[in-house]
């Protein structure tokens, strides 16, 4: 697939086709990490790092609900393997 670099104000822009955006799960406003690797421009969807995700795991958020406890205490009912 080829795209063309266009002038956009004092910058340049690349328009990404809808099919490519859908395949990557991107929307307008999504953030991409951009780098040069071995002479190639590489763009990838950026997201939180593992450290950032783990930082949101507080004891309050990790506490089991009553529904969780009931589910965990249930016996297998089908062909589950534990």
Automatic annotation (TrEMBL):
Start and end residues of each SpoVT-AbrB domain: 3-48
Pfam families membership: MazE_antitoxin
Domain of life: Bacteria
Keywords linked to the UniProt accession: DNA-binding
SUPFAM superfamilies, sorted: AbrB/MazE/MraZ-like
InterPro entries hit by this protein: Antitox_PemI-like (IPR039052), SpoVT-AbrB_dom (IPR007159), SpoVT-AbrB_sf (IPR037914)
Coiled-coil ranges (or none): none
Matches recorded under SMART domains: SpoVT_AbrB (SM00966)
PANTHER family: ANTITOXIN CHPS-RELATED
Protein name: PemI-like protein
Lineage start: Bacteria, Pseudomonadati, Pseudomonadota, Gammaproteobacteria, Oceanospirillales
